[in-house]
Amino acid sequence: MVQRSRIYFTNKQKSEIWDRWQCGESMSFIGRSFDWDSSSIYPLLSRTGGIRPPIRKRSRLALTLSEREEISRGIVAERSIRSMALSLGRSPSTVSHEVRRNGSYNRYRATFADERAWDRTRRPKLCKLATSPWLRRQVSKKLRLNWSPEQISGWLKRTHPEEEANQVSHETIYRSLFVQARGVLKKELVQHLKSKRTIRRSKHATQKGSDHGQIKDMISIRERPASVEDRAVPGHWEGDLISGSENSHIATLVERHQLRPLALHHQVHTHNPQRPLLP
Questions:
Q1: Would you call 218 exposed, middle or buried from its count of C-beta atoms within 10 A (0-12, 13-18, 19+)?
Q2: What's the pLDDT tens digit per position in 144-159?
Q3: Is residue 186 part of a domain?
Q4: I need a surface site. Which of 38, 107, 182, 249 has the fewest CB within 10 A?
Q5: Is residue 30 part of a domain?
Q6: What is the DSSP code string of 149-200?
Q7: Residue 80 in this model has a pLDDT that exceeds 60
């Protein structure tokens, strides 16, 4: 048995894959664009339930590395907390908390403190369902009754109009179902969703291919020869297709020289199981 080598995505490739997925492209189509199989794309998307992870960024209120370096230099120079806070334009309590949390005066290091602050941002914040057992029970109960997340969210708003703590958005429910790392809703509840999908699809996604409805190797009508325009040469035909109700279609052909339609009208009906086919 030949083992395939594991594919490691660069940050640029990951970003492009997520962009394509959010635009509604299928895994097969994304894989072909990279000359990979769709099975190579699935692990990346399924890790977060088909929901693009947020880009990590520092809060504008957080201390920067340069500010931490100034604190470190201030400690070496034996400056007071208030003096360092004044030069940084920060509250003395902010500087004091920063120093105490990262080794105090004797062991404070700017780089180490900055790395710890960045690591702390990895800790996911608990969502509403994780902090409210009652809300979690209500959502689980309705999902088992095959209610959609949209129906559950609407029902909670109507039942508890003045109690925001007892309301939850349908997006939060979807994320709690598909992102199992949250550990909020049980995985088997996904079976009660109408789509039965295991990962979230983009609202732009379609079950049809990206080339659906396109004629292969199509030549635009603007590119037809100039001799066709004056209708001087007999034998040139122009066709059209008219689609009607109940999947009926009529094809028309017109001879451009004499503008004489061909006596051919073709109507197609698909078989309806509730209606017998006509002989």
A1: exposed
A2: 888 888 898 899 999 8
A3: yes
A4: 107
A5: no
A6: HHHHHHHHHHHSTT-GGG---HHHHHHHHH-GGG--S-GGGGGGSSS--SSP
A7: yes
Asked if 182 and 33 count as a contact pair (C-beta separation under 8 A), the reply is no
Please state whether 147 falls in left (phi above 0), alpha (psi between -120 and 50) or beta. Answer: beta
- Which of 120, 147, 167 corresponds to the end of one domain? 120
Contact in structure between 169 and 153 (CB atoms under 8 Å): yes
Give phi and psi for 138, each to the nearest 5: -65, -45
Identity of residue 40: S
Decide if 166 is inside a domain: yes
Which tokens go with 168? Answer: 């939850």
Domain that holds residue 81: 65-120
Show the tokens assigned to 6: 């594991």
* Region 52-66 average pLDDT: 83
| Total count of residues recorded for the chain | 279
Largest CA distance in the chain: 101
Beta bridge partners of 251: 241
Residue in this structure with the two tokens 């201390």, named with its chain if needed: 63
Question: How far is the first Cα of the chain from the last one, in angstroms, to the nearest whole number?
Answer: 55
Look at residue 48 and give its three-state secondary structure.
coil
Our count of domains for the chain comes to 3
